[in-house]
Amino acid sequence: MATTIAGQDRLRAVTLLSPAYLWLTVAVFLPLSAMAFFSFLSDVPFGGRDWHVTLDNYRAFFETTTYATLLWKSLKLGLIVTAVSVIVGFPCAWVLAKVVKGRSREALFLLVILPFWSNSLVRIFSWAIVLRGNGVLDRAVNAVLPWDVKLNLMFSPTAIVIGLVHSYLPYVILTSYLALQAIDDSLIEAARSLGAKRRTILWRLILPLSAPGIIAGAVLIFVPVVGSFMEPRLLGGRLGTYYGTVIEDQFVAVFNWPLGAALSFILLAVVLAILAAASPILKRART
Amino acid sequence: MKRLLLTSALILAGQGAFADEIRVLNWQGYGTDLDWAIAAFTEKTGNTVVHEYFTSEQEMLTKLRTNPGAYDVVLINSAYTAQAKDEGLIDAIDTSKIAHFADLDPSLAGNEDLNPGGALYGVPWTWGLTSIAVNTGDFAEMPTSLSVLWDPAWKGRVSIRDDGLEAVQFAAMALGQNINEITDLDAIKAKLTELLPQITTFWSSENDWNQFMSAGEFAVATYWSGSASRSQAKGLPIAFVVPEEGAIGWLDGLSIPASSTHKGAAAAFIDWMVDPEFYVKWDAEGAPVSSNTKALAALPETSFNRKLVEDPATVARVQFMKPVSDEDREAYLKLWQDLKAAQ
């Protein structure tokens, strides 16, 4: 009798899980394995071209310093964007979770999520209009200040960081918000009644308790930013060559899919290695 | 039931004989897919036209290789015609089927890149230049030399396309080298290293270019002649300049894939594409230079293309692009990537 119930449970579990696993297989595993296969070929395996299995694509990464330099540049960009997003996003999440209540919280939430509803290209192009020389920002600043200011932020690393932070900020706000809301207000009151200063409460109570949320948001931002290509290309101008744009070039401009796939997998490996190296710290933050 | 099937089969066969649907493979928005042109062709011959597009020459070749029988007319840049012929992708053209062939510029029809192995594999359709265009608001006097791209006065307001091959070719011309026989790649690298700090951003499409130019980001930038005529028609204050060092010339031909099943209708379409009646109307909207001498003669005096080809000294300075070997292409790309990464 017991076995049949277990069998039924298993059947139910399989039925409920199968859409998710099917989706993972079709949308993640298959394309990823196709790309892994491409990365070991000498040429794309269609159109009657000659191809054979080779390691040359991975070797190409180590033959010049170009790719490593660019990867380092992209990792730095990822760190900066993540740091700025956390510094800007955490206070926002605090206000949402603990300060405002009711209707105004809903309105603020809407404002946070709003960027997600617009196409990312549209967002970047609107930033281009704002940032470019004699653009919206330049004119606004010049209208306020009496002397002539030339901001000229467009086509600089600053422009790339602004665009990326704007795109990814909601992640860190939402994850921190969830973590902050789970903190019992009475804990903070207890700390206060025991004479803890505001800074002590922040450092010893709120930050440790909300660390899982902050870290989850940071990881969600760091990984896509390292591989980003659209924002650097459109906002970075001649300085906008990053690891992601080089991969895009291989697929779109030069039609060298194998090299592009190999570069992508190296990026994946490096990001996984960084996350693995950071995991002890992350674990400690969680407990 | 049988009779019904038979009649429908007959109807289908009848349509096949009298009205073909031909499939054209081309860049998007490049002449062959103009609505009025297709409508006029359908009215004349009864054949209908369907388009498919590519975004790079490599993609075009891949599509021809992987979809035999899917295309009837394909646009191939003369630098790639020999490769397509060698792979058996396209057929030699039967010039007797092209009524306007006698009017085509003999030097283009006899172009050695379009005639690999001595037979014509692509009907010369249009040609154009990649050179520089300047904002007439910034330049009181037109520059005469490519060195304007390196002029510190325009630092931060210069642009070129993000394309390794083209960047190398421009540097080669500025150094007095032949773009098809580059001898000193180190000198080119040094020249491009000097050029990069001048650049504000790279442009990638005509639309891009127009926006940057109208926003005042560009004072001088590389550009295509056909696009320049379109931008001028839209009212942008620009001038297209062919400097004394020369300009990069390209020649596009229309070919018929070996696997095409509608070769007659395909030839008729190519004939319409080199028809002066078509070209004069296209030119008014902004077009590259036609290969048909009668079509050029029929253009109004003010036409951009008419003025461009009228000056034989300009045409003499053009360096037509030859096929580039894969090794060279890769070397240029690597050089370009290294330079960009070092920024």
TrEMBL record, chain A:
<dbReference type="Pfam" id="PF00528">
    <property type="entry name" value="BPD_transp_1"/>
</dbReference>
<keyword id="KW-1133">Transmembrane helix</keyword>
<keyword id="KW-0472">Membrane</keyword>
<keyword id="KW-1003">Cell membrane</keyword>
<feature type="transmembrane region" description="Helical">
    <location>
        <begin position="77"/>
        <end position="96"/>
    </location>
</feature>
<feature type="transmembrane region" description="Helical">
    <location>
        <begin position="259"/>
        <end position="282"/>
    </location>
</feature>
<keyword id="KW-0812">Transmembrane</keyword>
<dbReference type="InterPro" id="IPR000515">
    <property type="entry name" value="MetI-like"/>
</dbReference>
<protein>
    <submittedName>
        <fullName>Spermidine/putrescine transport system permease protein</fullName>
    </submittedName>
</protein>
<dbReference type="GO" id="GO:0055085">
    <property type="term" value="P:transmembrane transport"/>
</dbReference>
<feature type="domain" description="ABC transmembrane type-1">
    <location>
        <begin position="71"/>
        <end position="278"/>
    </location>
</feature>
<keyword id="KW-0813">Transport</keyword>
<feature type="transmembrane region" description="Helical">
    <location>
        <begin position="20"/>
        <end position="41"/>
    </location>
</feature>
<feature type="transmembrane region" description="Helical">
    <location>
        <begin position="201"/>
        <end position="226"/>
    </location>
</feature>
<dbReference type="GO" id="GO:0005886">
    <property type="term" value="C:plasma membrane"/>
</dbReference>
<comment type="similarity">
    <text>Belongs to the binding-protein-dependent transport system permease family. CysTW subfamily.</text>
</comment>
<dbReference type="InterPro" id="IPR035906">
    <property type="entry name" value="MetI-like_sf"/>
</dbReference>
<feature type="transmembrane region" description="Helical">
    <location>
        <begin position="151"/>
        <end position="180"/>
    </location>
</feature>
<feature type="transmembrane region" description="Helical">
    <location>
        <begin position="108"/>
        <end position="131"/>
    </location>
</feature>
TrEMBL record, chain B:
<feature type="signal peptide">
    <location>
        <begin position="1"/>
        <end position="19"/>
    </location>
</feature>
<dbReference type="GO" id="GO:0042597">
    <property type="term" value="C:periplasmic space"/>
</dbReference>
<dbReference type="Pfam" id="PF13416">
    <property type="entry name" value="SBP_bac_8"/>
</dbReference>
<dbReference type="InterPro" id="IPR006059">
    <property type="entry name" value="SBP"/>
</dbReference>
<keyword id="KW-0574">Periplasm</keyword>
<dbReference type="GO" id="GO:0015846">
    <property type="term" value="P:polyamine transport"/>
</dbReference>
<keyword id="KW-0813">Transport</keyword>
<dbReference type="InterPro" id="IPR001188">
    <property type="entry name" value="Sperm_putr-bd"/>
</dbReference>
<keyword id="KW-0732">Signal</keyword>
<dbReference type="GO" id="GO:0019808">
    <property type="term" value="F:polyamine binding"/>
</dbReference>
<protein>
    <submittedName>
        <fullName>Spermidine/putrescine transport system substrate-binding protein</fullName>
    </submittedName>
</protein>
